[in-house]
Amino acid sequence: MIEVQDLWKSFGRQQVLRGVSLRVETGELMALVGMSGCGKSILLKHLVGLIQPDRGKVFLASQELAGLGRAELETLRGRIGFVFQSGALFDSMTVFDNVAFPLREKTGLGESEIRAKTMVALEQVGLQSAGEKYPAQISGGMVRRAALARALVRDPEIVLFDEPTTGLDPIVANSILELIASVRRRLNFTGVIVSHDIPEIFGIVQKVAMLHEGRVIGVEKAGEVLRSGNPVIEQFVNGRPEGPLTAPLA
Asked: Which of 16, 210, 227, 231 has the most Cβ atoms closer than 10 angstroms to its Cβ?
């Protein structure tokens, strides 16, 4: 469903991605982890064509993004939901209108059908009674739930999550992760989730990929990642201060 082949990307003199290769099977949820600033969010944006690679290929649903025209790319994006970091809701819109926004902007549905689909999405994340509130009137956890509802409202086949629990306390963060797991079981979408919630994230995904120095250095089954034989992965997931990740700082 998602495949990245030898992806390279630089910004000026800064080389961010150095030959990333990755494959996510249909119906699989994969965690993408790594040190801050290693390029995880940049890789995620390549998956929806928001950033173009210097070289390499990205395939979604067997279609190479670089080979698509504008209309074809927009059609493909209609099959993708994206949960932005910190939710990225529109402050001037109610929760209901935030969730309905993709339907109003990208479909020809009538208002009654938009209302029905939006209410279903809100119910999926437990916000059916918060639709008329504005983002400033709800908690950080509810903002993330609304962002998830907005990503799901068009019934996507693929959902991408860019650090969906950043800035939340551990209890609320875990509740969001459990919600993502519950929704994925019901809807069976394919997904990639960028996260620093170690080890909690390993409980809701099937595989874990680590990005390091611009490359994916290992893909592990979620149940085995804490016992990885790769010293870089082991240091990162166990949070040890000493090891190959911090050796240059010694």
From this structure: 210
The residue-averaged pLDDT of 1-13 equals 94
End-of-domain residue from the set 126, 155, 184:
155
Q: C-alpha 84: how far from its chain's center?
A: 7
Give the pLDDT confidence score for residue 250 in this predicted structure: 44
CB 48 within 8 A of CB 68: no
Counted domains in the chain: 2
CA distance 82 to 156: 9
Average the pLDDT over 64-76 and give the result: 89
Partners of 216 in the beta sheet?
A: 211
User: Residue 125, Cβ neighbours under 10 Å: how many?
Assistant: 24
CATH number, residue 59 = 3.40.50.300
Structural domain ending residue among the three candidates 106, 133, 155:
155
CB within 8 A of 26, min separation 6: which ones?
A: 1, 190
- Judgement on whether residues 22 and 43 belong to the same structural domain of the protein: yes
Which run of H or E residues covers position 72? helix 70-77
Q: Which residues pair with 82 in a beta bridge?
A: 160
Structure tokens given for 230: 């790769």
Task: Give, as one character, the DSSP assignment of residue 135.
Answer: G
Nearest by Cα to 197 from 178, 174, 179, 216: 174
Pairing of strands 63-64, 80-83: unpaired
* pLDDT one-digit tens code per residue, 27-52: 999 999 999 888 999 999 999 988 99
